[in-house]
From TrEMBL:
The chain holds residues 209 to 821 of 821 of the full protein. The keyword Iron-sulfur applies. Keywords: 4Fe-4S, Iron, Iron-sulfur, Metal-binding, Oxidoreductase. The keyword Ribonucleoprotein does not apply. Transmembrane segments: none annotated. This is Molybdopterin-dependent oxidoreductase. Residues 8-64 form the 4Fe-4S Mo/W bis-MGD-type domain. It comes from the Bacteria.
Amino acid sequence: FKARWWALQKTKSVCSYCGTGCQLTLGTKDGKVLTTIYDENQGFHNGQLCTRGRFGYQFVNSDKRLTAPLIRKNGKLQEATWEEALAEVTSRLAAGKSDPASVAALATPRLTNEELFLFGKLFRGTVGTDNIDHSAGYAHEALTKGAVASFGVAASPAEIADVQKSNLLLVVKSDAYETHPVIGFEINLGVKRKGIALRIVSDKKGKLTRLPGAKTTVHAPGNEVALFNALCKSVIDQGLAVEGVAGLDALKAAVADATAEKAGVSAEEIAAIAKEFASAEKALIILPIGQGYPGHNAALANAAANLAILTGQVGKEGAGLLIMGEKNNSQGAVDMGIYPKGTGLNAAAIIDGCANGNVKTLFVAGENPVVSYPNRAKVEKALENVEFMVVSDLFLTETAALADVVLPACSFAEKSGTFTSLGRRVQNVRKAIPAIGLAKSDFEILNAISQALGGARYNNQGEVFTEIAASVPAYKGLTQAGLKDEGAVYPVALAAKLVPAAAKAAAPAAGKLALVTGSALYHCGTMSRFGEGPMYVCPDAYAELNVADAAALKVEEGDQVTVTSGTGAVQVVAKVGKRVPQGVVFSPYHFGEGSVNTITDGAEVTYVSVAKK
Ligand code: SF4
């Protein structure tokens, strides 16, 4: 960078990429973020950051940032003033108040808690609609339905600090190094320095599987619930279940025929994992959730929770279940209620509503459904059909390009507020630079709209936090000043009970490969695609095949291939190796062109054919 270290202004804040919630110090000068500064005294991670946190900040000062509002006139998006843009949006929402069911709103869990709280208040309270959701609905059901049913709270019973306090880690999926790299480092440290046992159940082999002593059980995609049910049955059959757990009889009946064979793994492996998990002094399950994992929903959270509860591995440090929300404020979005309750439409139903005309007004804060929701062709058609769409974002995303009004939003570096990590830690985000161009924070945007519609007015986001602390029970007693630099982990009162989880039988199609999606040092790409660091590490969309499948398909490393599902096709570069098992193809979903979500259908597993172009 082009400035002396000592000449930089330093601002402590929180990384805005993943749910790990690493703290960082931004080095800024002349309104630009020039670096992140390593500070070993900062955060649970002693200042360590992954590639995204360390080098992925360039998106903040990207010359592709939106710097002025845009309004569609004569079919084209044209620059407008804030007054014009907000007038258009508020008059549309004011009209929607008389027919709230025709209004829907999607927000990204990258916004601050304060922004998300205002978002919920504006749409639920002032406009009167419950058609509110985030991340295609995939990012929260494990918490809002799964964890609520199993533990009585919409949060993980475990914290990130429990990783290193455990004796045995049972990790679902093998790509923590790519989805939540600093948690990957924590696992690495625990395994190498403390001798923590590592067991992985995954549909492919990732970097984690190479750690010393790691034992990996590879299963067919979509078999996770069947596998956890088989583990529970084995615990019961081996006489290892703790006595007197609520729901034990119902669970016994539900898993009576949950054999290892049904999960597609060997009976010996199931028996061994069950025994080790039940016998460990402290055992912790690590479960990733998010848009890349359609099957990682409430049922899997229940199935995983059952194993922990059945073996007495909850309610003590180093044990339980850590549900790894994907984005920086996934947990906060749940805490602030950004999902449909009662009769409201979820994200998929909102898209359907746009397509069939029931949803006439759609407000999108930072989401990019065209790229990150399943079935791009369907989403694009629906968003082209909706009468009025407003998008606030940093960039003219594929979704913003279809909007009637586009509002330039601030990045995390240009605003203050709080994020809540996947470990329930509420942390201060601090403004480090002024807004880029005419951009406004989503707090300012939502506050202005709310006021124009007769809702509450806030002088600053701190006032919203005070209201959060008064109305969200988990945040009771928290103050922004009290969070200081280290933040605060909010407590959970667990009411653990066994909840039977139904395994859906995977239905492989002859001659097709099971498509596994996920992250490759990326999240939805909205920010990371504009960061040189992540783009250097992983520049192109790809499809990764097992050597045997590649040979059968006459595909070699680097070939252009077409991946075709029932809903469409994408062209990507082939990778060939042994990380993915036979019968499976892996592709990251975060790229605009070649995004594999273009062709997923929202089912647990999408089956595809792969052919050399
Ligand atoms: Fe940021 Fe997540 Fe990397 Fe930490 S692990 S630096 S929060 S992207």
